């Protein structure tokens, strides 16, 4: 049986490559922030049976735990620096640990984000990552920065993660091909770090967040923080390739109130449409204009013809939703 310290050494302590002055092994890690930069910090806690299925594939789980955290840095426009990992494990299963750490480090290396410390304990499976990033003062893409007249933009596509979940739950009948198309969006989300950074460096986008609980619920956070309202074109919302083959009603529902999308929703002045498109093309991420910020509070929906439509959708809430 592996001891706690052997486990850390074997699976989580690696040759130093990153930005930290001191990494795993002491009571604290030491970071030396780039002079003049601000530090962006975010934490996400994932619990077996709530945020991921019991028995989830450990390699994909390692990817996803870090991806959801990097997605928060992306949503601020910050550059990833490092992260800590607090793990509660029912046991020290070498195969599980190997796959989990490989999945996590593959994504960490893609973003040059070093594991600098953590905590390991025995208990029900739960994974808590804290990420650290940096950003120039005044450049963070804050939720309170949307203004009336801004366009609302979405990166990538929405709804395929939710469609995969519906397939697993047998809420929607999906054939094996559709499920194979949708499932990676649920298990292996792509944090839009380069897009977030490109938007913040250019100060184009004004408000942004990452869509984790469904567009409607998450956009409401921008509207609340910025004290504005919005109209969304429900038929402009970019559905994922698997969802695009489903009915209009399902497409509208899962693009508006899916969950686990990890795309960016951001706002920018209409005068900067061309610049937004060029910036997104520069990092190879498609973006779609889906609506407009307005002075009148509340969220309204229109269809492709501009006709108002009623939509009964809600975001995911861990305390009221099940
Ligand atoms: P302490 O008891 O002082 O908190 P620990 O014995 O928990 O220290 O951890 C020893 C070292 O290993 C620390 O540097 C800690 O950051 C690191 N560490 C512990 N668990 C993990 C983990 N899951 N991933 C990365 N580093 C870890
Ligand atoms: Mg400790």
From TrEMBL:
Protein name: Thiamine-monophosphate kinase
Other facts noted in the record for this chain: Reaction mechanism of ThiL seems to utilize a direct, inline transfer of the gamma-phosphate of ATP to TMP rather than a phosphorylated enzyme intermediate.
Organism this protein belongs to: Massilia suwonensis
Highest rank taxon of the organism: Bacteria
Residues annotated as binding Mg(2+) 1: 43-44, 119
Record-listed Mg(2+) 4 binding positions: 27, 42, 72
Domain PurM-like N-terminal positions: 25-135
Record InterPro entries: PurM-like_C_dom (IPR010918), PurM-like_C_sf (IPR036676), PurM-like_N (IPR016188), PurM-like_N_sf (IPR036921), ThiL-like (IPR006283)
Keyword Chloroplast attributed: no
Keywords: ATP-binding, Kinase, Magnesium, Metal-binding, Nucleotide-binding, Thiamine biosynthesis, Transferase
Function summary: Catalyzes the ATP-dependent phosphorylation of thiamine-monophosphate (TMP) to form thiamine-pyrophosphate (TPP), the active form of vitamin B1.
Annotated ATP binding sites: 118-119, 143, 212
Amino acids binding Mg(2+) 3: 27, 72, 210
Catalyses which reaction(s): thiamine phosphate + ATP = thiamine diphosphate + ADP
């Amino acid at each position: 049986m592996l001891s706690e310290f052997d486990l850390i050494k074997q699976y989580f302590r690696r040759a130093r490559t990153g930005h930290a002055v001191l990494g795993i092994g002491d009571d604290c890690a030491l970071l030396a922030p780039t002079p003049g930069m601000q530090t962006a910090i975010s934490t996400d806690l994932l619990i077996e049976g709530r945020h991921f299925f019991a028995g989830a594939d450990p390699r994909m789980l390692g990817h996803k735990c870090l991806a959801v955290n990097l997605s928060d840095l992306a949503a601020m426009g910050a550059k990833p620096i490092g992260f800590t990992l607090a793990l509660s494990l029912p046991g020290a299963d070498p195969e599980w640990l190997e796959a989990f750490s490989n999945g996590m480090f593959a994504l960490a290396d893609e973003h040059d984000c070093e594991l600098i410390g953590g905590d390991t304990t025995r208990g029900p499976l739960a994974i808590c990552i804290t990420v650290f990033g940096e950003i120039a003062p005044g450049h963070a893409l804050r939720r309170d920065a949307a203004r009336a007249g801004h366009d609302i933009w979405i990166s990538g596509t929405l709804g395929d993660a939710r469609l995969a979940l519906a397939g697993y739950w047998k809420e929607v009948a999906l054939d094996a091909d559709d499920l194979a198309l949708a499932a990676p969006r649920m298990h292996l989300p792509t944090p839009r770090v380069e897009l977030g950074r490109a938007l913040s460096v250019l100060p184009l986008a004004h408000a942004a967040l990452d869509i984790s609980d469904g567009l409607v619920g998450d956009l409401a956070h921008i509207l609340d923080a910025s004290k504005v309202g919005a109209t969304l074109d429900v038929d402009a919302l970019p559905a994922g390739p698997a969802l695009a083959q489903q009915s209009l009603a399902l497409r509208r529902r899962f693009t508006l109130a899916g969950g686990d999308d990890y795309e960016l929703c951001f706002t920018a002045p209409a005068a900067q449409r061309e610049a937004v498109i060029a910036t997104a093309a520069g990092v190879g991420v498609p973006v779609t204009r889906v609506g407009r910020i307005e002075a009148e509070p509340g969220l309204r929906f229109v269809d492709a013809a501009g006709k108002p439509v009623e939509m009964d959708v809600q975001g995911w809430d861990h305390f009221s939703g099940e």
